TrEMBL record:
It comes from Paraburkholderia azotifigens. Keywords: Membrane, Transmembrane, Transmembrane helix. It holds the Pfam family DUF1295. The keyword Transmembrane applies. This is DUF1295 domain-containing protein. GO terms for cellular component: membrane. InterPro entries: UstE-like.
């Protein structure tokens, strides 16, 4: 199967899936559950590309395994975080701002994410359809980046989950573990994850396309739907968060600033 046909199939299935979710969220008034569905569906695309492509077998296996495990872990984490909880403040703010137009605008907002998912899936497509096998050195680098990023994100998520679960920390700012060095260590490792597929694609004439997903993910998290919206809420709901912002790196972990 050609990459264009596979991407077209993935896009059509995503459009149908997100449209079905839109119907569900209209009744539940909880659009936040799109987050785990997005992660699960993108991981499924990695599996699909790995099986449908005719590229190098090792690269195909690494894409299917790496993207599939990443999507399953992140999806499960987001499901546990969001299921049965009030709607994420970001989506709730959209609903309030859009008013009577909320249903229509939410539909197109969700469907826009299908386009984002297909663009991100370039990271899976390029190595999956490469004809020549990647060198052992670049495979090792890709695997190391993947382990560091997925493992680091899992650690950051676990540290925050334990902090929030402790009643003594209610309303406080998490500064434990990785969160002492970055306000969003989970976002940092999420961006790093997409770099693994750049390494896996070195040697392919289309390797430059794999630079798009990590740049796009960083832009989305830092400039659009991640940090700006989340911190606009936290600075008003968490005493001391403004001070935390002054002292702590927004993304890349580094020693906190003092004074």
């Amino acid at each position: 199967m050609s990459p264009v046909v596979a991407a077209s199939i993935a896009f059509v299935l995503l459009v149908a899936l997100f449209a079905a979710f839109w119907v569900w969220q209209q009744a539940s008034a909880n659009a936040g559950m799109i987050d785990p569905i997005w992660a699960f569906s993108l991981g499924a695309i990695a599996l699909f590309y790995g099986m449908a492509s005719n590229g190098d077998p090792l690269a195909r296996a690494l894409v299917a395994f790496g993207g599939g495990i990443w999507g399953a872990r992140l999806g499960w984490h987001l499901w546990r975080r969001n299921a049965g909880k009030p709607e994420d403040p970001r989506y709730h703010r959209f609903r309030e701002q859009w008013g009577a137009d909320a249903g229509r605008k939410m539909f197109w907002f969700l469907e826009l994410q299908t386009v984002v998912s297909v663009v991100l899936s370039l990271a899976f497509a390029v190595p999956a359809w490469r004809a020549a096998p990647p060198s052992a050195a670049w495979v090792a680098i890709a695997v190391l980046i993947w382990l560091a990023s997925v493992g680091g994100e899992a650690i950051a998520d676990s540290q925050l989950r334990r902090f929030v679960a402790d009643p003594a920390n209610s309303g406080n700012v998490c500064r434990v573990g990785l969160w002492r060095y970055s306000r969003h260590p989970n976002y940092f490792f999420e961006c790093l994850h997409w770099v693994a597929y750049v390494a896996l694609s070195v040697g392919s004439p289309w390797v430059w396309l794999t630079l798009i997903p990590p740049v796009l993910m960083a832009w989305l998290l830092m400039k659009l739907s991640g940090v700006p919206m989340l911190e606009a809420h936290l600075v008003h709901s968490r005493p001391g968060y403004a001070e935390y912002m002054r002292e702590t790196s927004a993304l890349i972990p580094m020693p906190p600033r003092r004074g």
